[in-house]
Amino acid sequence: MSDVQVMRPQRSVLTSVFTPNSVKPPRHRQRFAPTATSIIPTIKSDLTSQLIVLLGIWDESFVYGQNRLLPNVGGPFHSHFDSCPPAGQFRQPTNADHAAQSAREAQSPLWTNLRQWRTAIGSGAVKRLLAAVLNDLMTEFVNWSYAGIYREELHAHLDFWVEHLFARLTRNILCALDESTDVYVSEVEVKRWKDMATSRLGALRVDELFEIIVDWDATTPAIEDLRRFTTNPATRGYLTHDFANALQTRLLHPGASTVEILQLYISIIRSFCVLDPKGVLLDRVTRKLRRYLRERDDTVKVIVAGLLSDSVRQKDGTAAPGDPEVLTELAVELSTHTAHDSNTDDSEFDWNNMEWMPDPIDAAPDYIKSKNTDVIASLITLFDSKVIFVKELQNTLADRLLKNKPDFNQEISVLEHLKIRFGESALQGCEVMLRDVLDSRKVDNVVRKDRGMDTQAMDAAAERQEAGSLYIELHTKILSRLFWPSMPEQTFTVPDIVLKQQESYEMGFEALKQSRKLTWLNTIGQVEVELELEDRTYHDEVLPWQAAVIYAFQGEADETERTVADLATELNMSPTLVRSACIFWVSKRILAEASNAKDTYFVLETLPDGVDSIMNDDNGGRPDAAAVAAEAAAAQAAREAEEEERKSKMAMYHQFVVSMLTNQGQMPLPRIAMMLGIVVPGGFPFSNEELKEFLAGMVKDGVLDVGAGGAYKVASS
After folding, report:
1. In total, how many domains does the chain have?
2. Is the pLDDT of residue 6 over 80?
3. Which of 158, 310, 581, 634 is surrounded by the most beta carbons within 10 Å?
4. Angle, helices 40-55/110-121, rounded to nearest 10 degrees
5. Residue 213 and residue 190 share a domain
6. Which phi and psi angles does 635 have, rounded to 5°?
């Protein structure tokens, strides 16, 4: 290998370029003495404290210029935004204001200290300290003056502070350091400082965004502050990342109810549609939220209950305060905004849209802007299939239609609005349910008139008024069995007086509708009861099985003490359901439990002394332990009824499975599930895992065998 020669530049070349005559020494030489270095923290502290006073930070009484109101001009500028008059009412500074502010600043010890600091550490070091201190004080001013304060025209206040206090004071300090009066701060520099202040305000609003959205109605002006901040992908990404983390920490956890999460989701939709009409930011911050809502079991139930709620609209169009557990604002939103409200086509093929804009650069690859950005459209697209909403809508609508209401205008209105979004075919079952209830009134009037039930009811009412005897007035709703959701039947024996009315009504109905036959669902509906006790009268609507239990206490005074077991045998009702009814009547102070025997109850004819005799639906708004126990017992009875219905259906599925495997031979689990979904009326309601457990039970009982590949077949005898 040959030697490598390294070429080194000659010193004469450098000296020829940088001649000693072209290098000028600094005007103020840097001193590196230890004493000078040690006083820098003290200088910075003193500079900070004196600038805080001159910039009006932490002083709510600070005003710029003269502290007086000029006629037809307005009031002075206050550095604290909450103390300042509205932007349209504080005046622009006059020459007298500038002179007063300059005189006030001249009294500060800052100007004397600047000369001392310049001598001690040099002008350059002081300027660097000044830049660091002013940078921190700008953030400190924004946080102090604007945190938690949301008013219109905030940026006019911030621009005033930057231009007339921050920029002017900076120029005066630079003039003092350079001992010159020709230091010029350009408009570009002032504009840069205003942008810096806007960024600090935006960062503050991002930190407050969760509280802003929670109290959306009172904090709407804060969204305008964020609009000025989110002008580039970096700030938009910072906002969405910070807010998504805040949602994950503060909202998406088991401690927050589904109603609270949906209420905040609605506020997020409204606020982010104002912040970013394109919907990119909304799409980015709500992905985890929507995924979490899909995982909650009661999300669909809460949404449907809100859509069907009886809302009262205020003058501003919002929902009046109501039940905090119901999203009543959804009903107002549904009636206010329809699917045709957002009719702007933002697609690539709308050549006539002269306001079309491309998707933002920070849009996700799978971003698709919905044409319907209203609240209802966002909620009903939570799930991929609308079948979930339609099924829950049928269940909730059934509960409402079976109540004793004078009209169903709310339900009709909701269905008409939902037809636009779901289509008429999807809501056909709901239409049949509503038509059944409306037609039932006509049929009920005809049957009662033909059977003379109205006359009998009037006579019975007259007799009751004279002798205090019992009378029954029966009204029915005729339901189309195939179009209504399945209802668990908790069988019990109805009183004879009711049974006779049902037989008479059934005869009248079959005469009117000769091709149809009635099947009575005694556990569904309401019974309006009026109980006359010695010292009070109770009037309310209760469930049929609750009325049957209290009716069983009719009799002489010495026969009114009954046990749960006796009532269960007499009424052919489950003990759990009887106990639930008794606890319900205890909560209403109609029955009382015997102290010497468990599950034994008697009629409380007179209330003890000192107990309020006024009986109403909610015990004066104070739920007691008996009412809570009644609800718990009723829930337990409902679960038992569902379990009994499940067992009865399982017996039917047992026959289906045996018949299929006998006729078509062995089948694997997925095919059995598919066949059951076809042949079972209403569809097979259980998952493959539940079906696997059911088939395992049949194998254990010796009904089925498991063949090769996990296929099931009928066991050979």
Report:
1. 5
2. no
3. 581
4. 150
5. no
6. -65, -40
C-alpha distances (whole Å) from 667 to each of 363, 549, 661, 712 are 49, 49, 7, 5
**Cα separation, 582 vs 570, whole angstroms:** 15
Which residue, 422, 413, 321, is CA-closest to 379? 422
If asked whether residues 228 and 371 sit together in one domain, one would say: yes
> Residue 550: what residue type?
I
Lowest mean pLDDT among 5-14, 214-223, 336-345: 5-14
Does one domain contain both 342 and 213? Answer: yes
Run of H or E including 688:
helix 688-700
For 414-468, how does the pLDDT look when each residue is reduced to its tens digit (9 = 90+)?
Answer: 898 888 888 888 888 889 999 999 888 888 888 888 888 766 655 555 555 444 4
Residue 25 lies in a domain: no
Q: What is the per-residue pLDDT across 291-345, written as a single tens digit (0 to 9) for each?
A: 999 988 889 999 999 988 876 544 444 545 556 678 888 888 887 765 444 444 4
- Whole-structure pTM value: 0.73
CA distances from 181 to 105, 187, 490 (A): 17, 18, 95
Helix/strand/coil for 63: strand
Enclosing H/E stretch for 530: strand 527-532
| Residue 243 pLDDT exceeds 90 | yes
Max Cα-Cα span within the chain: 134
Residue 535 forms part of a structural domain: yes
Long-range CB pairs of 85-89, under 8 A, 24+ apart, other chains included: 86/151, 86/152, 86/153, 87/152, 87/153, 87/154, 87/156, 87/157, 88/153
CA distance 473 to 501: 8
Q: Are 199 and 205 in contact (CB under 8 A)?
A: no
Higher pLDDT, 53 or 12: 53
User: Is residue 132 domain-shared with residue 228, that is, in the same domain?
Assistant: no
Higher-pLDDT residue of 595 and 6 is 595
Question: pLDDT per residue over 93-139, tens digit each?
Answer: 888 888 988 999 999 999 999 999 988 888 889 999 999 999 999 99
**Domain around 501:** 401-512
